[in-house]
Design brief:
This protein is an alpha/beta fold. 33% of the residues lie in helices and 18% in strands. The chain has a 6-stranded parallel beta sheet with strand order 3-2-1-4-5-6, with helices on both faces. It has a 6-stranded parallel beta sheet with strand order 9-8-7-10-11-12, with helices on both faces. Strand 4, helix 3 and strand 5 form a beta-alpha-beta unit. Helix 7 packs across helix 8. The radius of gyration is 21 Å and the shape is globular. It starts with a strand and ends with a helix.
Length: 327
Amino acid sequence: MPKNILLINFGGIGDEILFLPAISSLKKTFSDAKITLCLEPRSKSIKDLTNIIDDVLLIDIKGKNKYFELFKLLKAAWGGHYDVVISSGGNKLISILLFLTGIKERYGFDSGFLSRILLTQAVKLDKNRYASKMYHELVSPITDVVTEIPQIDVGEVEKENNSVLVHPGVSKISVLKNIIKTWSPDVWAELIIKLLDKGKKVYLIGGPDDEECIDKIVEIMREHPSQNFVNLYGTTKNIMDFARLAKRAELLICSDSAPMHIGVAVGTRTFGLFGPTDEKKLLPESDLFVAIKNDCACRPCLWDKRQTSCESLECLNIDLDRVVERV
């Protein structure tokens, strides 16, 4: 019976939300165990969304001092008295890293011959399924509990009928990497106007990375004044504030980003905009969660076929009237 479990999952806040079902199943199985999640500093706010993570270990794996950060991780593992370590990611070097921690039980994805030798169990990696289910396979060797989708408890929040929460942004990191996954501000503004014309009450929200996008949308909306349009940008203090707003809304419309995963986790009907990415990997199968997409022949392409967006972005050319009709 493990008393101290170390989980390693590098990525953005969306990746950490998708990892929550695996943590939840461990917590349900080993209720007295201390669970430490090792993650990147940019994703530390995950701890504000859940009480199933007892501690976090921040490792800036993508910073300038990557090797120093890896040594910091090993040092923490050596002194942490962990019984089990579980790591996501398909890199072949992960099994070596886990072996070097000296932790007795080690679980990770099967990345080849070395992983089968150095890990207690190398778990088959299936990238073609919903990411939460993919991550959950990592804990299947030590628990029979299965948690299907992320869950975030925001307390009692009353739904506002006929309300739509719109989050148009994506992280600046993705934009800098030329990964375009969302509409331009003028398209988002057009969608908002169409929703208002149908009698919806629309709330606009965004994070720190979205200020420029929000400003452009608000500027356009000045030419279409409506009491049913409310700009909430700047009113949230943390990620939990957004989660409560997502819970309150009857419907959330957003791009393929962390807010979409939060919408799923609080159980709000969520429309996620998918351009070059694969909705089957990022949305659970449910009538509650809808992918806004253009089924052009070349999508999905991002990650499997290419590492940046193409120039045409035909996949983001979507009929807004059809979206509004579905809403």
